[in-house]
Amino acid sequence: MRVQEPNRAAVETRDHARVTSVLMVGVGGQGILMVSKVLATLCQNAGMEVKQSEVHGMAKRGGAVFSHIRFGPEVHSPLIPEGEADVLLALEWAEGLRWLHYLRPGEGVFISDVRRIVPPFACRNRGRGVTPEYARATPAEIIGRLGTGYALDATGIARGLGNERTANTVLLGVLSTALAFPEEAWIEVISRVVPAETLEINRAAFLAGRAWVAEATVPEEEASPVTADPLLARITHRLEITRAWCKGCDICVKFCPERCLVLDEEQIALLAEPEACTGCRLCEWLCPDFAIRLHKEVPAPGASTSPETTSGTAGCDR
Amino acid sequence: MGNEAIARGAWEAGIGVAVAYPGTPSTEIVESLGRYPSGDLRAEWAANEKTAFDIATGASFAGRRALCAMKHVGLNVASDSLMSLTYLGVNAGLVVAVADDPGMHSSQNEQDTRIFARFACVPVLEPADAQEALDYTRIAFEISEEFATPVILRSTTRLSHTRSPVHLGSRIRPRERRFPENPLRTVTLPAHARANRPEVLAREAKIGAWFDESALTRIEPGDPELGVITVGLAYTYVREVLPAASILKLAASWPLPKKAIAAFARSVGRLIVVEELEPLIEEQLRVMGFEVEGKVFFPRAGELSPEILRRGFEKAGVLEPAARRAGLSAESIPRPPLLCAGCPHMSSYMALRAVNARVCGDIGCYTLAAIEPLAAIDTCVSMGASIGNAVGLALAGTEKRPIVATIGDSTFLHSGLPPLIDAVYMGADITVLILDNQITAMTGGQHHAGTGRSLRGEPRPRVDFAALCRSLGVRWVRTVDSYDMGTLYQTVREAAEYKGVSVIVANRPCVLDPVRIRGVPLEVDAETCVACQMCMNLGCPAISWDEAMYDGHHKVKIDAALCIGCTLCAQICPSNCIRAPASSDVEPVGAA
After folding, report:
1. Does any CB of chain A come closer than 8 Å to the CB of residue B335?
2. pTM of the prediction?
3. Does the domain formed by A2-215 have CATH 3.40.920.10?
4. Which of A132, A301, B213, B405 has the fewest CB atoms within 10 Å of its CB?
5. Model confidence over B450-465: pLDDT tens digits?
């Protein structure tokens, strides 16, 4: 057992020698690890203690990815406590929103690309006229709620420079204005971390990010990436199965995305759960015997009693 | 990284053999040992954690220091040997590096390895940062040899995957040892075990006393009113939240340094234990007669964090409830992990859907097929359980649908062979679909006996899965290309109809490892897309909705940055609208 000398002075200075916490978030494959490494190396070169914590496993699989970086004279917890991140750097818009509660209220700096990566999960509802489920908060709304917030089209800036993948370096440029390291130190570390052939473009991306801050504006609200006519949702549909033509091959049953078809006791296709049917028409396309037809029922303007029925064949309603 | 620090510590300790079965968050330990000179040590992937443990034991018997690494659930597999070896003791140092996963970032449970240490009467060291990970690994080998015991070095996800600077040491040359030539130390017989059992208990007490003396057990005096006993990563959170408290930082949760604890307890007014997961230390303290608090304030479930500690200490009345400023928050979207674009597992599960199979799944990337849109896995329990579960379903005789077990190549070699032997022996009517992507993919691409390469990438003999299954008595064995959907569907259909055990080896390399596969991205012809979204049933992340619609439904588009040109979506498209770009004269990857 070792008993440390009580060091009151150290206890008292602990509060003053505050640790800086930067939370970096994004989607697997965006290069969170690269930007984390740049900052961690920078801090280490400056003689500070630094801890960088991440979770592996989901990184390659399009899941949400995060990296906690904490630096200062003495760092204990590798995890940033909620509400204590000095900077939140997001490589994707919805990811920035997901971790917003980690930001220090009133003081924390929010930096986010407005790029939207819509996961396939958001495109699950096949109903007529639906839009993908994506975070609703707009950059203007979020920036308005924050002390210091930057929302920029880093991916667009990077694309303009010739390589979309340098968006993370553009964001590092923005981050560099929020932390007290000299510009040359950043560029020096970046040039050691990125592949040699991308050195120039990464340097340009970094400087573009820094330059953007000078004239930072909140981007115009992007139109929702997918728009749909709300009238579409009012269209209903009906599935007609011609029993005489069905030979019970089962194809429609196996491939119905909503799994709402079954074979009945006579081995004929049956729509068991009509309320689950989205009218996607996959069964109609796949049926080798043309035994399934989908009828759309479009409510007539002003009246819903006598729906106008249109044929379900491919050519007629395009 | 914590894991790299453990590897460094093991190398510095002069180990000769390192063996592991990969498992997040432990994988990088032996992986990074593979980057040290091959003249210094053998670094190998084993078939499973038990063989890894047994191989490390053999090396220790032979006089070389050895390390085996695994994730917490891996220790369940290796525990049979651990529980016996603890009676025999070790010759050269043997360290078992076990990485727990509190919070279940990538695991099926969050069992606490320290309970196993108590069960096996072996010490468990718990480093709090990368520097300690390195130092404790070196010390673990010293303890192992001084007390002739296996030693568990327990990490957690947070430690294993946190990077912080470390001071490097140099590699030592451990004292040379020969095979013990003492059956009491190398052969378990009831007579030997009876003789060894009291020694194991005495050893445990001696190690506890060693920790009493050791400088690793550290008292940080502070406010005498409150004493916190803590260990591992929880220590860093305590320092963060309660900078002024008196702290007793333990190096090991088992066996406990009783004198040190008693001295500390006498020096403080109130005693609180902060430990992640189970109340191991807390309960032991209570047995020792101390008035102690712990889990009444801190959860037993999940990973600890500074804010959880802060709330716990507020509940304990130690901290003033902080006037929390209105926190920020905004609504986001769910973003679960996905199979990769071009993943060959997608077609396998589509094919199983086509035969309406009851599917027993296993542990690997393909477990992701349990969620929408594939939603094609009905059971998943533990490594290798799929085949046994399927045999059970068949023996129960209640299932009308074809019963299929799906298991990856690496998992099959890990623990799929014994249940396949059972299936043949019991005459179960099941199909086993071996998803052979020629790598241990889930953990980031490690070689195994079925890939033909070693951990260091040297060529090795390669398991022939089809021949292996035939040798076990399976009469119906076929190998198919997972990218050839027509043949795959047909093969699955025939296998499902076959009465008895049938095995399909669905073969296609992982798109990420060992080589990242890139092909010509495909395009959707918006003219002919009828928005049926059949392709989206694959769950491929490269396919999403387009703005354009057909009949009120979204047409699809393919993200050229993600698509590798596997052609699976093109093969199932009813309107044949997915094609290679007209300008391309390159054959897509999956062209049959």
Report:
1. yes
2. 0.90
3. yes
4. A301
5. 999 999 999 999 999 9
